[in-house]
Design goal:
Rossmann fold; two-stranded antiparallel ribbon; DNA polymerase, domain 1
Length: 285
C-alpha cells in the first residue's frame, strides 16, 4: 500500500491504519452531546418538517435504528430538506462547551506511529469542532465525513410528494416496512451500510485487512468486521458480535493493544500517561 513505509519507526504490527469514529468514541457519552443531539433532531422534525410532537420521538428512534442516522431515514421515507440546514439545526446547538481538552488521549494518539483517520457520519463542521475542543485536531492524517461520503447528494427530484406511510404498529413495537419488509433506499451514504465503508476505504486509501476500526456502535462494528476490518468496540465492557476487542474507555488503548505503541525510549519517556485512567476501565479481548 501507499502508506506502508510512511512511519519508519513503527513497531512491527499487523496494522497500517487506525480508523476512528468521533461521537461517543473519542469522548464519553456522559458529555451530554448525544442526548442533546437526539432532542435537536426531534425538534427539527416537529418544527421544520411539520410532524406531530407525539410521534416524532418514536419515529426518530425507528429511523435511527434502521438507517444509522435519522437524516438518512427521513430522506428514505420521502422528506425533503436542505442537508446544511439540518446539520446547522441539529449540531449547531450542541453543548460543545462540555467537551474539554484531553491531553491523555492526545498523547496516546501521538505515540502510536501508525496513520490515523477519522470515519464519521457527521458533517465536517461538527467533526472539526469536536476535534478542536478535545485538542486532537492535528492527530489525524485524514477525515472521512458526511460531505466526503456524499459529495453530490441532492434532494429527491419529485418535490412535494407526501412522505410514505411506513409505520406499522404491532402492540408497543414500531417497525419501518416497505413491500416485503425491505427498507426503502436512502440517498444518504452512511454507516452502518457496507457501501459507506467501501467509499471510506476508497477515499482514505485503506486496506481493511490492515486496519483497526474503533467505534461505539455495535452495528457499525459488525459491518466493519464483515468488511474485513479488525474491530474495537468503545464504551462497552464486553465484546459483541463482530468485535475483536471491547474498551470501556478510549483511554484504555495502550492496555488492550500495546503493540500499537512506539517502543523508542526517547519518544516514550516524553509522554506521560494517567495511571488512574489505565486502571479505571476494563478490557475484554
Amino acid at each position: 500500500m501507499e502508506y506502508q513505509n510512511q512511519y519508519q519507526d513503527a513497531p512491527e504490527t499487523k496494522y497500517e491504519c487506525l480508523l476512528f469514529d468521533v461521537d461517543d468514541t473519542l469522548y464519553s457519552q456522559s458529555s451530554g452531546l448525544s442526548k442533546q443531539c437526539t432532542k435537536n433532531i426531534e425538534e427539527y422534525m416537529i418544527e421544520k418538517l411539520g410532524m406531530e410532537e407525539s410521534s416524532a420521538s418514536e419515529l426518530n428512534m425507528v429511523l435511527y435504528r434502521n438507517y444509522g442516522t435519522s437524516m438518512a431515514g427521513l430522506k428514505a421515507i420521502g422528506y425533503e430538506f436542505d442537508n446544511d440546514d439540518y446539520h446547522s439545526y441539529v449540531h449547531g446547538r450542541l453543548p460543545y462547551e462540555n467537551l474539554k481538552p484531553d491531553p491523555v488521549l492526545r498523547n496516546l494518539l501521538l505515540s502510536m506511529p501508525i496513520r490515523k483517520v477519522i470515519f464519521s457520519n457527521a458533517d465536517k463542521v461538527h467533526v472539526a469542532k469536536v476535534l478542536k475542543k478535545l485538542g486532537l485536531e492535528d492527530c489525524f492524517e485524514g477525515i472521512v465525513n458526511f460531505e466526503s461520503l456524499n459529495p453530490e447528494n441532492t434532494s429527491n427530484s419529485d418535490d412535494g410528494h407526501e412522505p410514505k406511510d411506513l409505520l406499522c404498529r404491532s402492540g408497543s413495537n414500531t417497525e419501518i416496512v416497505a413491500g416485503d419488509s425491505q427498507l426503502l433506499k436512502t440517498p444518504i451514504l452512511c454507516k452502518p451500510f457496507e457501501d459507506a465503508f467501501e467509499q471510506a476505504f476508497n477515499i482514505a486509501n485503506i486496506n481493511p485487512q490492515k486496519t483497526l476500526f474503533f467505534d461505539d456502535s455495535t452495528r457499525n462494528i459488525e459491518t466493519g468486521k464483515n468488511m474485513g476490518l479488525h474491530t474495537v468496540l468503545v464504551g462497552k465492557s464486553h465484546r459483541t458480535n463482530g468485535a475483536d476487542y471491547a474498551l470501556e474507555s478510549i483511554h484504555n488503548i495502550r492496555e488492550a493493544l500495546p503493540e500499537l505503541f512506539c517502543t523508542d525510549h526517547k519518544r516514550s519517556k516524553s509522554i506521560k500517561y494517567s495511571e488512574k485512567v489505565a486502571i479505571e476501565t476494563s478490557v475484554r479481548a
